[in-house]
Write a structure and sequence with these properties.
Blueprint (H helix, E strand, L loop, with lengths): L19 H25 L11 H9 L3 H24 L6 H31 L3 H12 L3 H4 L11 H16 L8 H23 L17 H16 L8 H16 L9 H14 L1 H7 L2 H8 L1 H19 L8 H31 L4 H18 L1
């Protein structure tokens, strides 16, 4: 990271270290998710019929795989949240304070999220003329990340918020899951995590997916996605104990590049159980590949990746809002051309709006001391008012 201008906008971390490679990986994940939803909106809700050339099928199949970005985020969460516990159990670092851990999650994530779903609920009420009191039950459930449990088959106030409920369930399980790091034998420990990362999706694929209805409570639990978090924990194990001593190598560019190709391009169902570990292997290139490390630490790319939470919260809303106007701009009835035009119109709107939200709402909440600072400012103002 050579410059310093963009660094003023980087995320504020709870520890003293910032890993730009992880924010570079976040950029890839959020870009895939945004393109996935943008393609779905343009392809299905345009005002005029669009022509799709035969050779487009592979390209749009790739965009249809954009939901892989969500699973990449889950691996990142497993890595980030598993790392401090791995450092404690494996390297003897101080034990993470659970009270600070949970308070950090609450003060860091809840304010931007509550603002988001509040505005989304009000917007839905205004657009559909549904009374706000009708939206209050799903809003209240969403506010405590239990919408999926109470309203399983119905629309979320923010449709992408279901993944945040998965994340919160993982936050609660992290202290228990990371007890695996107590195993002193590294091969046994890693084999256990790796085997679970493969066995869980294999079990789901062959014994569960076709036997559980779409309205089942199972789909709103972390049970069907836990393997991605476990793969991230496995990566955190390797990262804290070995990766810092590895030399950068073109070999990791080749290995990780191949893993990225499989993850992003192939749709072979039999490879599904390997997907979590393939994502973890793809990540290693960002840390120790010569070319990939340089790519994922590009300054502006890592900074935008650090804004992924704001982008994730708002991109669906912004796409729907802007497309209500931009859908009238049709200079070609070709689907690909129209998607490119809409991307040029909509993507900058997403970036500008979400960057402003990040700067003024999310980033201040990254400061662990913001509640105390706010209380000091409010109480100081109150005392001055009484004196005057």
């Amino acid at each position: 990271m050579r410059g310093h201008g963009w660094l003023r906008l980087r995320r504020i971390t709870s520890g003293s270290s910032w890993i730009p490679e992880i924010d570079g990986l976040r950029f890839v994940a959020i870009l895939l998710v945004v393109l996935f939803h943008l393609n779905a909106e343009v392809s299905s809700k345009g005002d005029v019929p669009l022509t799709m050339q035969p050779w487009y099928s592979s390209l749009f199949a790739f965009f249809g795989r954009g939901d892989i970005g969500v699973r990449i985020f889950f691996v990142i969460s497993g890595f980030i949240l598993g790392r401090p516990f791995a450092r404690h159990y494996l390297l003897g670092h101080p034990r993470p304070s659970l009270s600070s851990y949970y308070l950090r999650r609450l003060t860091r994530l809840e304010p931007p999220y509550l603002i988001n779903i509040s505005i989304c609920a009000i917007s839905i009420a205004l657009y559909t003329q549904v009374p706000l009191r009708t939206l209050f039950p799903p809003f209240a459930a969403s506010a405590v990340y239990l919408h999926g449990f109470f309203f399983r088959g119905t629309q979320f106030i923010n449709p992408v918020a279901w993944t945040l409920e998965m994340e919160v369930q993982f936050y609660l399980l992290v202290p228990l899951l990371t007890l695996v790091f107590l195993l002193r034998n590294r091969w046994l420990r890693r084999s256990l995590l790796g085997a679970a990362s493969i066995a869980l999706p294999a079990t789901l694929q062959y014994f569960v997916f076709g036997k559980i209805s779409g309205s089942s409570t199972f789909w709103v639990t972390i049970g069907w996605l836990l393997q991605y978090f476990l793969a991230g924990m496995l990566l955190s194990d390797i990262y804290v104990t070995e990766i810092p001593s590895w030399r950068t190598s073109w070999l990791w560019d080749v290995v990780s590049g191949a893993a990225w190709c499989v993850v992003l391009l192939l749709t072979e169902p039999r490879l599904y159980p390997l997907e979590p570990l393939l994502i973890a292997v793809a990540f290693i290139g960002a840390f120790r590949g010569v070319l990939l490390r340089r790519l994922f630490t590009i300054e502006w790319l890592a900074i935008v990746g650090g804004m992924c939470y704001s982008i994730y919260l708002w991109h669906f809303f912004v796409i729907a809002l802007v497309f209500k106007v931009s859908r009238r701009v049709v200079v070609s009835h070709d689907l690909l051309t129209n998607c490119l035009i809409q991307s040029v119109l909509i993507l900058p709107c997403i970036l500008v709006f979400c960057a402003l939200y990040f700067i003024f709402i999310e980033r201040p909440c990254m400061d662990p001391t913001w509640p105390q600072k706010l209380w000091t400012a409010v109480s100081g103002h109150s005392r001055r008012s009484r004196v005057s």
